[in-house]
Specification:
The chain is mainly β and about 675 residues long. The protein has one domain: Maltoporin, Chain A. About 5% of the residues lie in helices and about 55% in strands. The strands form five sheets. It has a 22-stranded antiparallel barrel. A hairpin with a 2-residue loop joins strand 17 and strand 18. The protein is globular and about 80 Å long. The two termini are about 50 Å apart.
């Protein structure tokens, strides 16, 4: 009861503070450093061409740089975590990943099946992303397209596409920041309209009990119990780096380079012992293991756009490694020395993922009513599991393949009100190391009806597909078992929607239904007591409705709210033990926020609520999980054109919520704040 009263008081105080800002900022001030925010016309590239958002036959969301800055988001991950119909799976504070256990985007209940683009080029590795390291200061805008986009963008775009467009050119600024939990931030940016370079680093200190899970060690040979109980995880020395360079060679050519680095040290301790080998006598409070995880990611892009041509060349490489002592053997259930680097008492893992390719398209116009976009894509994927102290060079894994794609999209304007769009794509692979090549042909049809200048109806039917990754098929470690027999995912998405921009409102309604055959998911069998997961094919379906409205209020206020109701369910393909459809994800998601911009002040309060949540092991029914509520408040004061002071508070209600969607628990970081100062010159 006291906590509820405290939470209510906090929210009341925040809103009162916002109203106070209105009085302080507007009272007698004639100078407006920031303009009033209005619902201007939005242009998106969801159809591989610039189109008015109102005329795009799909559910789309565009987040501008101004909105990102106003929210106080520190990374791309922070931005995506508050979008209606989308969740961002995270682990440690600030999105600190555990090596290859990095973060995932969930759109419409489909985990990890969204395609992440940076400037229109894919950057995903292992089907995962390093978006927590992408500094928000380098983002120009983010475009989100929900629903299948495989016809235009290829594999992985089953539930949607997130296109992060980075800034071109640069500004001259220096940023420093500090907060609780040892938070520190430093950043510098210099450049002009043609050239820009920036470097940002963010750090966290120690945060205790970020995760908890069952501890169940069983001999792989005999099945004998070794150690059963529970353990928890602490994290410290988290570091996120983002180095960005961009250069506009000419009006037609530009080049972009990004370097991302994440480091985090995790320490795991035993909380409870239900069973231990009589000869081992392990006790609660003992250390279990320590891991230092590091991920380095390089992306380079060369863009050409002129004469109705658009050509992109890109190169991505990611190296991830884990290193640290194991104090209790996972094979014997007994204590180890934990000091010498041997295969018995030391964990080491290293892998490298590379992808590079070209994407080219040409636009044709035939009169005023017809147009065609056609193009090709070629990507080379390369996966290597590198040698460690416990492996020999000859034992390392190496897999590669070529991904080819041909696509075309015809747009026909029948009259001033009605437009039809038809697209198709052929995708195939070659050069797969063990001959496991895939091919897929998919189609999409869209129809747009303009009710008037301010509103439209649309219908969207699209097929989708996704190829399994090398890590899902071949990589093996102490927590995962690969499955070389995985099938590609195939699916179909149906959507009907209504859009209306009228006065101060931007209203959106979308009704959708999707089916995915052979959806690839990580399966953990809790009945066996094993902590190891295996990748399996499941069938997935989801039906839902999305509602949202953005409202431009008076006196500098803007409001937004969103509601998603859905029923995502899954069933393991060909498994009689799970013949029923089991709920896969939460049914209801609510998002909302209020922002203020006037004079020298801006302020934004946002929240995301996921209710009726479940955890889904595999061979048993899903079980209830406490809902989560993510809240943040950011206030910025600009005394002049050079200086900016901002305060960001996350987890305002200090809730201990589980942010994960699998068998383990990953808690939200307790209430935390960050004070930043930026000087522009």
């Amino acid at each position: 009861m006291k906590k509820q009263l405290l939470q209510t008081a906090v929210i009341t105080a925040i809103l009162s503070g916002v109203n106070g800002i209105v009085s302080a900022g507007g009272g007698g001030q004639s100078e407006n450093i920031l303009p009033e925010y209005t619902l201007d016309e939005v242009v998106v590239t969801a159809q591989r061409a610039e189109t008015k958002e109102l005329d795009t036959p799909a559910s789309t969301t565009v987040i501008t740089h101004e909105e990102i800055a106003q929210s106080g988001a520190k990374s791309a991950a922070d931005v995506l975590s508050k979008v209606n119909g989308l969740t961002y799976k995270t682990f440690g504070p600030g999105g600190a990943s555990m090596g290859t256990m990095t973060n995932e985007v969930n759109i419409r209940g489909v985990e990890g099946d969204a395609l992440i683009l940076v400037n229109g080029n894919p950057v995903a590795w292992r089907g995962k992303y390093n978006l927590d390291a992408m500094a928000a200061e380098n983002i120009e805008r983010i475009e989100i397209v929900k629903g299948s986009s495989s016809v235009l963008y290829g594999s992985e775009a089953m539930s949607g596409v997130v296109n992060i467009i980075t800034k071109k050119g640069g500004e001259n600024s220096v940023t420093v920041g500090a907060g609780n939990f040892g938070q520190r931030a430093y950043g510098v940016s210099v450049g002009n309209e043609r050239f820009g370079v920036s470097y940002h680093v963010k750090r966290w200190g120690e945060v205790g009990r970020i995760s908890a899970s069952d501890l169940k060690l069983t001999s792989k040979r005999s099945g004998t119990r070794l150690l059963f109980g529970e353990n928890h995880t602490d994290v410290d020395k988290v570091k996120k780096e983002d180095l960005a360079l961009n250069y506009r060679i000419s009006p037609s050519w530009d080049i972009v380079y990004h370097y991302y680095n994440t480091e985090a040290r995790y320490k795991r301790f035993i909380d409870r012992v239900d069973y231990t080998l009589p000869t081992a006598r392990i006790k609660a409070g003992e250390p279990y293991n320590t891991r230092m995880y590091e991920t380095d990611q390089h992306t380079m892009q060369l863009h050409y756009k002129a004469h109705d041509w658009k050509v992109d060349l890109y190169f991505n490489t990611t190296e991830s490694k884990g290193d640290g002592p194991t104090y209790i053997s996972q094979r014997t259930g007994r204590r180890t020395t934990g000091t010498q680097k041997t295969s018995a008492n030391w964990h080491q893992s290293r892998e490298r993922n590379r992808s590079y390719g070209v994407d080219a398209q040409h636009d044709w116009k035939f009169g005023e009513k017809s147009s065609l976009i056609a193009g090709m894509s070629l990507a080379r994927e390369d996966y290597r599991k590198l040698a460690t102290i416990s492996t020999a060079e000859k034992d390392t894994l190496h897999y590669a393949r070529n991904n080819w794609g041909l696509f075309a999209q015809w747009t026909q304007k029948f009259d001033e009100r009605n437009t039809g769009i038809f697209g198709m794509r052929e995708t195939w692979t070659t050069g797969e190391s063990n001959g496991s090549n895939f091919s897929n042909f998919s189609m999409a049809g869209q129809f747009l009806h303009k009710l008037d200048k301010e509103s439209s109806l649309y219908l969207n039917i699209a097929q989708s597909f996704k190829m399994p990754t090398f890590s899902q098929m071949y990589n093996s470690n102490d927590r995962a078992t690969p499955n070389p027999g995985l099938k590609p995912q195939t699916g179909i998405n149906y959507e009907i929607g209504w859009k209306k921009d009228h006065g101060a409102h931007r209203l959106r309604v979308a009704l959708f239904h999707m089916r995915i055959k052979d959806n690839i998911t990580a399966s953990v069998d809790k009945k066996t007591g094993s902590a190891v997961y295996t990748y399996v094919n499941e069938d997935f379906r989801n039906t839902g409705v999305e509602l949202s409205d953005t409202i431009t209020g008076k006196h500098g206020f803007t409001y937004n709210w969103g509601l998603t109701w859905q029923n995502p369910v899954s069933r393991k393909s060909g498994d009689a033990s799970k013949s029923y459809w089991d709920r896969k994800f939460g049914k209801i998601q609510l998002t909302g926020g209020i922002s203020y911009a006037h004079g020298k002040w801006t302020s934004a309060l946002s929240a995301s609520y996921l209710a009726d949540r479940v955890q889904t092991p595999s061979k048993e029914h899903s079980y209830a999980c406490k809902p989560y509520l993510l809240t943040s408040w950011n206030t910025t004061y600009r005394p002049d054109e050079h200086s900016e002071l901002s305060l960001l508070i996350d987890n305002l209600l200090d809730r201990e919520d589980n942010l994960g969607h699998s068998g383990s628990v990953y808690w939200s970081t307790p209430v935390n704040y960050m004070l930043n100062y930026t000087y522009r010159f």
